[in-house]
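Hi R.,

Here's the chain you asked about this morning:
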Amino acid sequence: MKFKIPIFDIKNLNFSVKGQKVLSNISLEIFSSEYIAIIGPNGGGKTTLIRMLLGLEKPTSGEIKIFGKKLNDFKEWYKIGFVPQRASHVDSSFPATVLDIVKMGRSSQKTIFSSFGEQDRALVHDAMVKMDVLDLKDKMIGTLSGGQRQRVMIARALASKPEILILDEPNTGVDMASQKRFYALLRTLNQEEKITIVFITHDVGVIADDIARLFTINQKAIICNNPKQTLSCEEMSTLYGIDAHLLHNHKHEH
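And the predicted structure, written out as tokens:
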């Protein structure tokens, strides 16, 4: 019997665009301190699902509750940190330092009359330390490498002190060394900081070793509590259109 209220409680979610079904009858729960990956083919509805969880898209039918509240009644968005797709891609001429970018993470809890106080400075400092970008604080964001910008964007999300961190294909355009560091940072945030992690990825070679649950999204959802088993099952072959054993045998070195 479950007594915990899920962070996200999704029931019978459907989403269509111009009569074309994008998501069909999605039901799932995400609980505190979980570490979850979402995978699936391009166009399968992964990003659309995330956008609905963030209130950026409205479902055609179904229900989403966040921390026990209906989506329309939920106001505490600072509890949810979000790193969007291609977040590490920044115009090289963008006039902002790393510190400026991370400070933006505090804006969700500010009004136009609020000042940037001591607690804000402490949370921004702590977020930069966790993401190992404090030494870059005075650098212009456009001068950094893709991996460095990736960590800055996660620090910005962490500055709001979220209970859950959602990342949409955060490794796009990031080199392999930075990807390995990224996964190590995610594990630390989940295991030591107890932050719930949900991320969309195409790196199916790493997820079985690291995550607790796996959601595969291709219009419909398959929820798996044993990712290694799922990576070798027939559903994966159907989902990606390739032999599942190729996914299962791929090894990710930490």
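Residues 3 and 101 are 39 Å apart (CA to CA).

Let me know if you need anything else.
M.
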